[in-house]
Amino acid sequence: MEFEITHVTHYKYGHPAAEAYGEARLTPPSLPSQTVLSHRLVIDPEVPTSDYIDHFGNRVDFFSLPFRHKQLYVSNQAVVRTHPVPLPASSLELPVQEARQILGSVMTDIFDYLQMTPGVQPTRESVQWAKKYLSGRAPLGESLQRLNEAIHAEFKYKPGVTENSTPLTTIWKNKIGVCQDFAHVGLSILRTAGLPSRYVCGYIETDPVRDADGTLRRMTGAVATHAWIEVLVPGMTWVAIDPTNRQWINERYVTVSFGRDQRDATPLRGTFKGSGGQNMKVRVIMKRRTPKLEKAKVAS
């Protein structure tokens, strides 16, 4: 599949900002699951950017506006071709305990993804769920499937009820939130169980697709950036689950950034100096398009 992606973030200030600084983690990486055909980052007012690769392998574009401005637009535009990537069946058939033992031999490579963070903290519930869904004798793949379905079933998706600063204990208590909250819940369980896992930020197809029963269905969380979970399995392969949509990741997803939690992988962050507040609006469109090669065949 090929997708045209447009992700626009608009900051409007109550009073003109004196200056602003930002970091953008918006460049999709080239992966076995995706090929980046084009990418463009547009900042208005126009300013130069400098880039670097962070600790987690994300490209970061830094920009500064050292002058007064009333608003700021950041537009991320990309064309990405996605590819089906088969799951590593032999690794997922291993018992959870055996998978932990194998991965323990490469501790220096996985250390970061076993650590708790301010956004991903151990809780009484994460310990209970780790014992219930990631017990030592159960096959790893089946365990991940059950965990994915359990989070989807127990937690209600509702935008606007949580913020980036909402503690994970509150998410567990109220069992309501958005995709980043569900990802943090899953990460707390997986790391409690000793399985290396990371937070993924990206995009999902915004148009609805017809199910097997003929019903048109849009994926949950398709109007903004989306978040899901990757788990490292023996063979040093990452596999991805999306508890918000109760499925394994497929060709309708485009990865943008990785990290231990939302803060590491957030698409945009920064600060501004001014006497007023700011209002932020975000719009994401990821539309499927016909590959040019197929168009050429039809024309012939």
- Provide the helix percentage: 10-25%
The average pLDDT score comes to 93
- What separation lies between the terminal Cα atoms? 21 Å
State Rg: 20 Å
Query: Given the structure, what is the number of helices?
Result: 9
Shape, per Cα inertia axes: globular
What can be said about the biggest beta sheet?
Answer: 5 strands, antiparallel
**Main structural class:** alpha+beta
User: Low-confidence stretches at least 5 residues in length (pLDDT < 50)?
Assistant: 294-300
The number of E-state strands comes to 17
Q: Please give the oligomerization state of what you see.
A: single chain
Order of helices and strands: EEEEEEHHHHHEHEHEEEEEEEHEEH
Strands in their spatial order, largest beta sheet: 14-13-12-9-15
Give the DSSP E fraction (strand runs of 2 or more residues).
Answer: 35-45%
Description:
The protein is globular. It has helices spanning 89-92, 96-103, 107-110, 124-133, 140-154, 168-174, 179-192, 262-265, 292-299, and strands at residues 2-17, 19-24, 34-44, 49-53, 59-65, 69-82, 156-157, 176-177, 197-204, 209-210, 216-217, 226-233, 237-242, 247-248, 253-259, 268-273, 278-289. It has 9 helices and 17 strands. It starts with a strand and ends with a helix. It is α+β, with helices and mostly antiparallel strands.
